TrEMBL record, chains A, B:
It is found in: Cell membrane; Membrane. Belongs to the anoctamin family. The chain crosses the membrane at residues 52-76, 129-145, 196-218, 238-262, 282-303, 402-425, 453-477, 552-577. This is Anoctamin. GO terms for molecular function: intracellularly calcium-gated chloride channel activity; protein dimerization activity. Residues 41-595 form the Anoctamin transmembrane domain. Residues 2-38 form the Anoctamin dimerisation domain. The gene is ANO2. Its main location: membrane. Keywords: Cell membrane, Glycoprotein, Membrane, Transmembrane, Transmembrane helix. InterPro entries: Anoct_dimer, Anoctamin, Anoctamin_TM. It comes from Coturnix japonica.
Amino acid sequence: LGISTLIANNVYDAAYPLHDLLYREWARYGVFYKFQPIDLIRKYFGEKIGLYFAWLGLYTEFLIPSSVVGIIVFLYGCITIESDIPSKEMCDQHNTFTMCPLCDKFCDYWNLSSACSTARASHLFDNPATVFFSIFMALWATMFLEQWKRLQMRLSYFWDLTGLDEEEVKFQVIEQTEHIIQCFCLKASIVIKLTCMYISLQITLTFSAVFGVIVYRITTSAALSFSTNETTRSNVRVTVTATAVIINLVVILILDEIYGAVAKWLTEIEVPKTEKTFEERLILKAFLLKFVNSYAPIFYVAFFKGRFVGRPGHYVYVFEGYRMEECAPGGCLMELCIQLSIIMLGKQLIQNNLFEIGIPKMKDERTEPKKMDTSQPKDPQQWDLDYTLEPFTGLTPEYMEMIIQFGFVTLFVASFPLAPLFALLNNIIEVRLDAKKFVTELRRPDTVRAKDIGIWYNILSGIGKLSVIINAFVIAVTSDFIPRLMYQYTYSQNGSMHGFINHTLSYFNVSHLKAGTQPENSPFAQNILFCRFKDYREPPWSQNQYEFSKQYWAVLSARLAFVILFQNLVMFLSILVDWMIPDIPKDISEQIKKEKSVLVDFFLKEEHEKLKLVESFITHDKRKHKSGAEDQRIRAASLSQFNQSQKGSIASFSSQHTVV
Amino acid sequence: LGISTLIANNVYDAAYPLHDLLYREWARYGVFYKFQPIDLIRKYFGEKIGLYFAWLGLYTEFLIPSSVVGIIVFLYGCITIESDIPSKEMCDQHNTFTMCPLCDKFCDYWNLSSACSTARASHLFDNPATVFFSIFMALWATMFLEQWKRLQMRLSYFWDLTGLDEEEVKFQVIEQTEHIIQCFCLKASIVIKLTCMYISLQITLTFSAVFGVIVYRITTSAALSFSTNETTRSNVRVTVTATAVIINLVVILILDEIYGAVAKWLTEIEVPKTEKTFEERLILKAFLLKFVNSYAPIFYVAFFKGRFVGRPGHYVYVFEGYRMEECAPGGCLMELCIQLSIIMLGKQLIQNNLFEIGIPKMKDERTEPKKMDTSQPKDPQQWDLDYTLEPFTGLTPEYMEMIIQFGFVTLFVASFPLAPLFALLNNIIEVRLDAKKFVTELRRPDTVRAKDIGIWYNILSGIGKLSVIINAFVIAVTSDFIPRLMYQYTYSQNGSMHGFINHTLSYFNVSHLKAGTQPENSPFAQNILFCRFKDYREPPWSQNQYEFSKQYWAVLSARLAFVILFQNLVMFLSILVDWMIPDIPKDISEQIKKEKSVLVDFFLKEEHEKLKLVESFITHDKRKHKSGAEDQRIRAASLSQFNQSQKGSIASFSSQHTVV
């Protein structure tokens, strides 16, 4: 009967619920190359989830061009690596630079050519194309936000959301547990104080974690350099960096989970009035905490590491005799790049694979045998199965993951042009993974209408703005771009890069090393007078020995001038892009206008017909009874009054009616 | 009869048209302290003009706090002038600095103490309070724009403009004269090329005018310094500066008139499709031209003057032997301040008093006798009088004047904290002057509806953004704020400002002056070895003599760092202010929401009543005729169909209805 009869009669080939259709067309890895069936998703899950997947889809699409440009920039680095004079000079054995020891007493003087491979690798990410790429990515972010505004407008038109006033959708006071009602009695000021206290406590916790890892790095590298084993000592840097980044990653993953819970608890004790304000406050708090957590170690490497080292003979010491850590000879940019790639990839792999695939699988396997037991009675199977599914707990974690990724793609893109590629690869999986989760692993969520993605848009646009200034600083301060440029156009004799390495290294008179910090058992010690270190300082034979040299200040000026130029140029271009792309697609705005006039016409026509209908009754009445004039007059008067009020309401309707 | 009978019966005391009421309550200088009767203005002149006066009123109100703060900042300068060590040191006769001559051959060495008064005066505008004031003004501009958005929203609610779709208001192709229709045939690309060409031509014209004045200044000061008259020579700088600024002012006033006409002509040949696009394009072009025209000389003084002078012994020469001009010894900020105040005040006085009061008065007087002649027949007097009035030509010149003034108030406020005060004084007159013009001197304009002030808002917000970066540069580069700070915290021996003047002056060995450029007949020449000049350069006894010194680069770094810090801090605060003040006032948004639900209720009630009415007809029908069942059924069917369609339309209405 019904659909099955039709199938039996070959009217239809097959029939299955929307659920299964969604699974076939959307929630499989096999269809990764296809656009998502957004309208179906919206029909099944509601507008809010539909908007999330539409946003995720657009973001993933936008990652394609940026990945391509990122790969080109990376390839440019690979191709020009052979023609890069500074790294060539560094590898050149004839041109030896004897560097000052990297640690007190146990480290020896060393040859700069031993850092040759790092220098070559860092050229991959530290070349002029990166400057172009970070301008490109800033404009990309603006363009993405603009296109999203347009897509959102289009969806909200086709999904009939233009008139939706979200605040009216839900007005639900959260009062689930006792302790909340108890907190109700707390004064608002106490809640705010508590919130501020907790947030600062959490941020302090993050900073201490970062600091802890720094201390770990300093002490371990010091400890390892005492080692008598030659191979241990030569691999100190690699060992320490690798372990430290992994510790960072683990700390981030753990704190991430804690912070999510803390933010939720904090928002609950605030007792916000509506679902919407609850969500917004939760998101803001969670975002603040997770942002600091994810980026603190990266910020440290980008802007602070190696900047408070002091100089040979006058190092900065922490904790009784531990020297502050320096960047690798290839520059801090290389380390930033390693840090970024490991944290980004690790976070994605672990959070996606372990938390989103692995743990549900494990749970599945554990519940599998149970299911087999209860599957004896055939009928109740489906709802029992559905009951075992996890409940839906909101889109916040999904958005949060993507926004943090958006940060990796935009904030430090100057140091890691492959970030968009990794994000793209992750997202192609992520879309289908989320789809699978929604279709097969979660109970079907209540549909919620939503006009836009809410506060996430503001967060995205904030990240976009922040990325401009951060990229400006990464290029100007962390990379060697400005010193190279300065050397080529100001200090170089013949406009070439020959002699750049020599120019960036200052001299140090080894006899000025403090007693007890000289290298022990050094084969060099007898032969050398001066060792070199990377900084712009006056040579030992100058009057103001070891003070910052004129070059230092000139290069610093150039760096800062670059920041100003870059920031204002990119901001200007962003405003231009924003201004040139209209927020509402032209076809939609025309459609809305047309519809509005059709609607007004329709109302007027309706009125006209109504009038006619009523009149026809009256004439009908009249024709049949010539008597009853009194009765008739009353009716006519009430009718005319009715018509007037009707017209009034149309007038007020058309004046109030608004097109966004 | 009518109103006059009522007055005679003492029901009313008096009666007069809205016109006269407006004159009494609004268009008189006597009521300058009162709020404007915006609703009356809107009723008489329409929404567009109402919005202009509302905007002007809000702007004038906002000028009050900024004037007060500006006066306080200025007073702070006056009070601390005695305790300012650098200007004191400069005036101190014992501490003589012999400065290098200001021109070749004819100028002598001079004592820095002779510039004492300028230095003291420049302290009035160049003190730490100015930094605070320019941050204040940047936030003030943001706050003003936010408050305007709110006021606009409020007005558009009370004036029933929320539903207004402006593009539908007018669709009028401009085709007045033959040459336009002829231009119609020109291809669009030619028009665009022509426009670009003309605009660049005009901008070139402005720059040549500025350059011309510079040349005038250089040559005149050279010519005057040849003079044998002692008093002429001592007043060279004052004479030249004063005349040059006046020439600048005259050029600005003349070009302003030309540019207005050119912009209009250019937009006419573009043949835009609607009145609105016509206006927007005209405004953009006129604004671009007038902006460049008004600010080019000020930009020159702020950022370029005195920066390409060269140094003693190696001056930069233009036109065979004329040296580039330097700033006065008190610094360029003082000159910027003079330039700003003269151009701002001159523009306001001349454009207001001469163009807006004087010329209409003169015309009035010329038409007065005519009126006396034609006033014999009593009846046609009023419309004859009205016919002699000028026609209304749009609000663009009024807005333009105010926007250029807004630029003076925000863009360079760091160098002239009294600008808001002058603007306030001007605007108190301007409001009533414009009012008078609209009420008594112009024919009553056609009322035009408008939802907002259109493109002017974007221009204002653009000026606000630009002001942040310009003020940052004025403080960092033009003023002596950063060098003072640097000296106090880095170079000074005891943390005081003693010795600052000496620190900013470099040494020059007079024997290095090129032959023929030494001062003739100098009484000093025999006794001195070194003269001083204001710059950070290596002394003659250094290895790299006269190169930029380390201090130069260090100070430059500090200046640029300040720009970055200032810009980002102010931008962050502006975003915060923008975010914290909601665009729609709370009472209005609640009112709109309430109204919407009332409207929906009303429609539903209407439907219900309609249904009842129709049903009563049917029962009425039925009661009177038990027969005619066939007829009855048809009618009932059509009625239920009608009801259905009616409900459908309400549903679509409520889903389409939008609140901005």
